[in-house]
Specification:
The chain is an alpha+beta fold and 270 residues long. It has seven helices and eleven strands. 44% of the residues lie in helices and 20% in strands. It has a five-stranded antiparallel beta sheet with strand order 1-2-9-10-11. Strands 3-6 form a two-stranded parallel ribbon. A two-stranded antiparallel sheet has the order 4-5.
């Protein structure tokens, strides 16, 4: 009797172990399926973003054919609000990279550019950061991407985050587009300019952009300390897409050369 009881207990134990093993296998299979589905959804979301980037390139090429002045009232600046598509949503925007302070301008023919270093000091002050960081940032040039600011002595994480709102790194020296410039970049461009004055100017230029530097001078009567312009060659395309539970982000820098499709300079996906 005792042996029979032991056998029953052993049989129950084996059955329970088998059931547990089966449950574990099913759980692993389910997790594997979920991983496969998540990977598939992420791949689809990324594909949507790359298609959106191609659309953005076409918009920028058409804009170049339409005129030689870039400003915030043009089609490219409108962005794409969150839009439902089959299986998910997509949203994005195009930003004028030449509306930001270009750190590549800190060097001129391989040597520090004193006017641009001084402009960076004004930008730092406008951002509420120490102007004394300007020489250290200039000494760290050239950079391939603004995220490399994290390697500069004195640029802690909070400082880098604040700077990334107003600076970029482009492949060459460029003029600041006054029509799309951030107010802090306008403070950097004009010695003695206050942030309050720059905010007013940015609003006026958004509502009524200038078509030339001569018009800028006649309307606002100031002498810039760095190179200004009204046309841009570099644009940042940012996109976000969601498919199922997967979300993908894409940021790309494009250079526009005439009316041809802009060419990719760099991109990163997450």
């Amino acid at each position: 009797m005792k042996q029979r009881g032991s056998a029953v207990i052993l049989a129950l134990f084996i059955a329970a172990a088998a059931a547990a093993a089966a449950s574990l296998a099913l759980a692993r299979q389910d997790a594997s399926v979920r991983r496969l589905e998540a990977g598939r959804d992420y791949g689809q979301a990324l594909w949507m973003l790359r298609s959106g980037a191609h659309w953005a390139r076409a918009v920028l090429a058409e804009d170049a054919r339409a005129g030689a002045v870039d400003h915030a009232g043009e089609l490219w600046a409108g962005g794409l609000a969150p839009t439902d598509v089959e299986g998910g949503t997509i949203a994005g925007e195009i930003r004028d990279a030449q509306g930001l302070f270009n750190l590549a301008n800190l060097l001129d023919k391989g040597e520090p550019s004193a006017p641009d270093v001084a402009a960076l000091a004004r930008l730092l002050a406008a951002l509420g950061l120490p102007p004394a960081l300007a020489p250290a940032i200039a000494a760290a040039q050239p950079m391939r991407d603004a995220s490399e600011l994290a390697r500069v002595r004195g640029c802690d994480a909070a400082t880098v985050v604040r700077l990334l709102e107003a600076v970029t790194v482009l492949p060459r020296r460029t003029a600041l587009n006054v029509n799309t410039a951030r107010p802090e970049a306008l403070v950097a461009a004009v010695e003695g300019f206050t942030l309050a004055e720059a905010l007013v100017l940015a609003r006026e230029l958004k509502a009524s952009p200038v078509r030339s530097l001569a018009e800028l001078q006649s309307r606002f009567h100031f002498s810039p300390g760095i190179s200004l312009g009204v046309k841009s060659d570099f644009f940042i395309v940012e996109g976000r897409a969601r498919v199922g539970a997967a979300e993908a982000r894409l940021e790309a820098l494009y250079e526009r050369k005439g009316a041809a499709l802009p060419v990719l300079v760099r991109q990163k996906a997450s």
